[in-house]
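Hi R.,

Here's the chain you asked about this morning:
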Amino acid sequence: MRSSLAPTLLSASLLAALTACSPPKAAPTAQPPEVLTLTTTTTAVPLTTELPGRTVAYRIAEIRPQVNGLILKRLFEEGSDVQAGQPLYDIDPAPFQAALDNAEAALARAQALHPALVSRAERFRLAQADKAVSRQDLEDAEAALQQNLADIASWKAGVEAARIQRAYARIVSPIPGRIGRSSITDGAIVTAYQPVALATVQQLDPIYVDVPQSSTERLRLRQRLEAGQLRHDTTAHNRVSLILPDGSPYPHPGSLQFRDVSVEPSTDSVTLRMVFPNPDGVLLPGMFVRTVIEEGTNDRAILIPQQAVARDPKGNPWTLVVDDSGHAVQRRLDLDRAVGDRWLVRSGLQPGDRIVVEGLQRAKPGAAVREVHARDPAPPHGPGPGSGSETGSESNSPPSIPTPSSHRQVAGTATRTGTGTARR
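And the predicted structure, written out as tokens:
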């Protein structure tokens, strides 16, 4: 028993001695984290502003009677289109016709007396030259003639007034448009210029869209233009597009007609009025719509993916930039607006900066990183609505981003790269 344990104990002792004498293994070296970067460049981006507004009829005419009377007949179909001058109501014309006949008879009587008075005044003028009549008789004859002329002028005016009153017995539409419901029926008594309108005619083609714009944003836009940050296209400056309540685009472009000259104190905004053609009657007064106004073109815009932007506890945006030594550097950003799923950077980045678009959680500011470059995405083209009140143009295809195992290095323009962080 003792002889069998001796070799085993000897072998264990030799193995322990060899293990104690062998040098310890070195710990594996930590590799820098791998990040996906994109090289920023400048590009021309048409910028637009999306503002809510409401449609307003181009012209509105409230139909009211201009004389007192009894409504004999309504002459239109409620909700139909009417033309300017089209009859709408008939008021009983009998009293107005009688007044017109009376005025015409009085005018005829005055005109009938006129030749005799002219002859009498002429005879008295000749007789007075021979001293056959007195000067007083001549003056009386001439005064009678002048009074007759005044009576004729007065009754002519009376006939015209009676004719106007007679014409007012038929109420016509002053403008073309669509007429609403009638507030009275046949047989109703109406008064001249009554407060309640008989009906309302609204011209809907073209149609207005009134949009409130913040006075602060108006000043900011003016400052960008004066600083040369935006370039105006004179042909497209007043061009406006429309988005319907269901989100579909309105097929007919409009134009900016004017900006109000006063600021609304309660909202600190000015009213912009646009005009749009409405040949199909799609737009009705009071509809809530969104307008897209072209501000201008930013020729030196820097666009970065939203996923490349993070925020500190105070909500300030920042990103990581890889410097020439391969270390990540934190940069504070000043963002202008969202353009599609990208941010338009106002300051904080320069063309040629390599920003981290994937791996922000792995990379630490000041630490070395291993870069994988994204492929060049398609440049943005054409204005289009984005999120928020301000929009810009956006690309329809995302950039091709290689997987972390791919190491092909191709510098690209910092543009659209999928979904990003929460919008500003």
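Residues 381-389, 391-424 have pLDDT under 50 and may be disordered.

Let me know if you need anything else.
M.
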